[in-house]
From TrEMBL:
<dbReference type="InterPro" id="IPR049438">
    <property type="entry name" value="TreT_GT1"/>
</dbReference>
<dbReference type="Pfam" id="PF21269">
    <property type="entry name" value="TreT_GT1"/>
</dbReference>
<feature type="domain" description="Glycosyl transferase family 1">
    <location>
        <begin position="207"/>
        <end position="379"/>
    </location>
</feature>
<protein>
    <submittedName>
        <fullName>Glycosyltransferase</fullName>
    </submittedName>
</protein>
<keyword id="KW-0328">Glycosyltransferase</keyword>
<dbReference type="InterPro" id="IPR001296">
    <property type="entry name" value="Glyco_trans_1"/>
</dbReference>
<keyword id="KW-0808">Transferase</keyword>
<dbReference type="GO" id="GO:0016757">
    <property type="term" value="F:glycosyltransferase activity"/>
</dbReference>
<dbReference type="GO" id="GO:0006006">
    <property type="term" value="P:glucose metabolic process"/>
</dbReference>
<keyword id="KW-0119">Carbohydrate metabolism</keyword>
<keyword id="KW-0313">Glucose metabolism</keyword>
<dbReference type="Pfam" id="PF00534">
    <property type="entry name" value="Glycos_transf_1"/>
</dbReference>
<dbReference type="InterPro" id="IPR052078">
    <property type="entry name" value="Trehalose_Metab_GTase"/>
</dbReference>
<feature type="domain" description="Trehalose synthase N-terminal">
    <location>
        <begin position="33"/>
        <end position="178"/>
    </location>
</feature>
<comment type="similarity">
    <text>Belongs to the glycosyltransferase group 1 family. Glycosyltransferase 4 subfamily.</text>
</comment>
<comment type="subunit">
    <text>Homodimer.</text>
</comment>
């Protein structure tokens, strides 16, 4: 079975047909994606599937990775922090390393980039490549995966100089868009339903995961999966749990976060969470390895309610993941959680531990309501947040850019 056919079983034949129709309009066009790493991080994970899928749809797709040295990555890490709001200037010597690295990479990539019909540049690392491709034929898109809602202005002003030359840009949410002289497309993130984190699991395996982590079977469990970060409000989750436990004494809480970390703040938050838990035997605080995808998948499946009580959230993939497992999500009324949790339908939006507790208690007392909301949550993800939707939107954007000058575009793929 081809990769694309394996998605038909999950996303539906009609979704795949639609992709094929769009693919027909784009047959043979040369597309190049450029980022700065082939493994690790969300962008690489997305491209890993996106590139072969577009290839199966008839596009001539390449994925190129730029190379840099320590100074280059130091600079781009600082970009990342500054664009997400950290006020820290970047030295001229780092900026020079950044620009020179792009010039050097362009030496090798220029023939491919200038020939391409569409170039998609991911994040700030390869952004200046366009300046080194004066004879480019195609359209260039900047795909920014970063939360740009409150950037540190001097750094954004510097990067914006490179972004203005693009034909279009893509942001994940309306809140992240910035004034730019071209059309900005909003394409939310997505999950891969066939990845280890999200694929269907054997029932026995799911059941067994409770045993592995010493979680009682057949009594309710609330779960929050997230880094130990104050913005994710793990302490607020424990406070909510305590309030619910007064009414549901057998309730258990699982907080699953990253394993040993060199992030000093992560350690401090982990200590705060342990202090708040105060040795309660019904609270499990798990530190998982970064590649514990199947374990997280099983925990999400065995949970009764998934929490994501963030006070700030870019998108919140843990919300999407929980909903995909058929769980209603009680989520903080913040950022991208609002796109996913449709209050009273796919879950509840809350602002306080008391609010979270009220909703959790409501759901635990009404199992049929809990299951109904869980079903709606899964369907909502199927319709809106699978990677097949992400590809459809990319292809639609490419059709718009390539055929934009024409009076009529036959979207059913006939010419
Ligand atoms: N995650 C993980 N292990 C952990 C904590 C989180 O694999 O210990 C995963 C989680 O399943 C999700 C991603 O990391 O896929 C977190 O994305 P999200 O958008 O929820 O939050 P971020 O950490 O990017 O703020």
């Amino acid at each position: 079975m081809s990769l694309i056919e394996s998605y038909a079983a999950v996303a539906g034949e009609d979704v795949i047909d639609h992709l094929r129709q769009l693919g027909n309009l784009l047959k043979g066009i040369k597309v190049v994606h450029v980022n700065s790493t082939r493994v690790g991080g969300g962008v690489a994970e997305i491209l890993d599937k996106l590139v072969p899928l577009k290839g199966e749809l008839g596009l001539d797709v390449r994925w190129e990775v730029i190379q840099g040295d320590g100074k280059f990555y130091e600079c781009t890490k600082k970009f990342h922090n500054a664009l997400q709001g950290k006020s820290s200037p970047i030295s001229d010597s780092l900026l020079t390393a950044y620009e020179n690295t792009n010039v050097q990479n362009a030496e090798e990539l220029r023939p491919i980039l200038e020939e391409a019909d569409i170039v998609v540049i991911h994040d700030p690392q390869p952004l200046p490549l366009l300046k080194s491709c004066p004879n480019r034929k195609g359209k260039w898109i900047w795909r920014c995966h970063i939360d740009l809602s409150h950037p540190y202005r001097p750094v954004w002003k510097y990067l914006r100089k490179f972004a203005v030359d693009y034909d279009a840009s893509i942001f994940s949410l309306a809140d992240f868009a910035q004034p730019l002289p071209h059309t900005q497309y909003l394409i939310p993130p997505s999950i891969d339903p066939l990845s280890d984190k999200n694929k269907d699991l054997d029932e026995d395996f799911v059941k067994n995961i409770r045993q592995v982590f010493n979680i009682r079977q057949d009594t309710p469990m609330m779960l929050q999966v997230s880094r130990f970060d104050r913005f994710k409000d793990p302490v607020g989750v424990i406070q909510a749990y305590r309030l619910v436990k007064k009414f549901a004494p057998s309730l258990q809480l699982v907080l699953a976060g990253g394993g040993a970390t060199d992030d000093p703040e992560g350690e401090a938050v982990f200590a705060e969470v342990n202090a708040e838990a105060g040795g309660d035997p019904d609270i499990r605080i798990l530190r998982l390895d970064p590649d514990a995808h199947v374990i997280i998948n099983a925990l999400q499946r065995t949970a009764d309610i998934v929490m994501q009580k963030s006070v700030r959230e870019g998108f919140g993939l843990t919300v999407t993941e929980g909903m995909w497992k058929g769980k209603p999500v009680i989520g903080g009324n913040a950022g991208g959680i609002r796109l996913q949790v449709i209050n009273h339908h796919t879950g509840f939006l809350v602002s306080t531990p008391e609010g979270a507790a009220l909703r959790a208690r409501y759901l635990l007392q009404r199992p049929e309501k809990l299951h109904e909301m869980g079903r709606k949550a899964k369907e909502f993800v199927r319709q809106n947040f699978l990677n097949t939707r992400n590809i459809r939107e990319y292809l639609t954007l490419m059709v718009a850019l390539i055929y934009g000058g024409e009076d009529r575009i036959e979207l059913n793929g006939r010419s």
